Amino acid sequence: KNQVEQSPQSLIILEGKNCTLQCNYTVSPFSNLRWYKQDTGRGPVSLTIMTFSENTKSNGRYTATLDADTKQSSLHITASQLSDSASYICVVTVTSGTYKYIFGTGTRLKVLA
Amino acid sequence: KAGVTQTPRYLIKTRGQQVTLSCSPISGHRSVSWYQQTPGQGLQFLFEYFSETQRNKGNFPGRFSGRQFSNSRSEMNVSTLELGDSALYLCASSSEVRGLEAFFGQGTRLTVV
User: Fold this and answer.
1) Contact call for B104 and A100, based on CB within 8 A
2) Residues of chain B neighbouring A46 (CB-CB closer than 8 A)
3) Across the interface, do B104 and A103 touch by the CB < 8 Å criterion?
């Protein structure tokens, strides 16, 4: 069964600190993995996308890693800001004839001043 | 380039009624997907339309239906509303290159009372 699991479910950190969010997937056949940021009441916005051959990708203070062997990805946020408070969703694309997105349930991050 | 536009933003309906939500994709995008997002379930895939044809379908009852017009605009209809249909309904568009980024709209917040 295609599944994407994220941890932790929620996280509270102080402004300026770093944090790492995890995403484990059991998906086949794998096409790519994306991390989305979703502010409350708004639609998700893509942060990074990685294919099978990519190990790491950065977008400003956001760095995503992918280990295709262990089927794990992480999103590292450096020097957190209050505006980082949001839900972070890991999405894996499956391609088998057509394509399908498998969504994780997300990690809700709260950054405190 | 204008983003994905969903209307209305908010909607309150009573049980048993039916509702139609609208989504205008990014210009040039022919794929439109619909998702239901609830706090407990995360993002659940409803269906995807490409060039006026339903290409993928999630595990939702037949009360949920959709269609896509020749200009790629899409509508989603829910008949015989139930309290459990209360959710944020998100629409995403992408180009015909499979696996490319899905751009999300702001969503329609549906409340069934």
Assistant:
1) no
2) 101-103
3) no
Q: What is the pLDDT of residues A53-92, one digit of tens each?
A: 889 999 999 999 999 999 999 999 999 999 999 999 999 9
Which tens digit of pLDDT belongs to each residue from A7-54?
999 999 999 999 999 999 998 888 889 999 999 888 999 999 888 888
CB B4 to CB A93 under 8 A? Answer: no
Residue B19 corresponds to which amino acid? V
Residue B75, beta-bridge partner list = B22, B67
CB-based contact, B23 to chain A, within 8 Å:
no
Residue A100 CB: number of other CB atoms within 10 A? 19
Number of residues written out for chain A: 113
- Name the CA radius of gyration of chain A, rounded: 14
- Whether residue B90 and residue A43 make contact (CB cut-off 8 A), yes or no, is yes
CB B47 within 8 A of CB B34: yes
Q: Which chain A residues are Cβ-neighbours of B42 within 8 angstroms?
A: 89, 103-106
Cα–Cα distance measured from residue A47 to residue A35, given in angstroms and rounded to the nearest whole number: 6
Q: Check B45 against A42: CB less than 8 A apart.
A: no
CA B17 vs CA B13, B51, B60, B85, B112: distances in Å: 7, 29, 18, 11, 9
- The phi and psi torsions of B26 (rounded to 5 degrees) equal -60, 140
The two tokens of residue B89 are 């309904």
Q: Which amino acid is at B9?
A: R
Task: Report the residue from B99, B103, B106 with minimal CB separation from A95.
Answer: B99
10 Å CB burial of residue A57 (0-12, 13-18, 19+) is middle
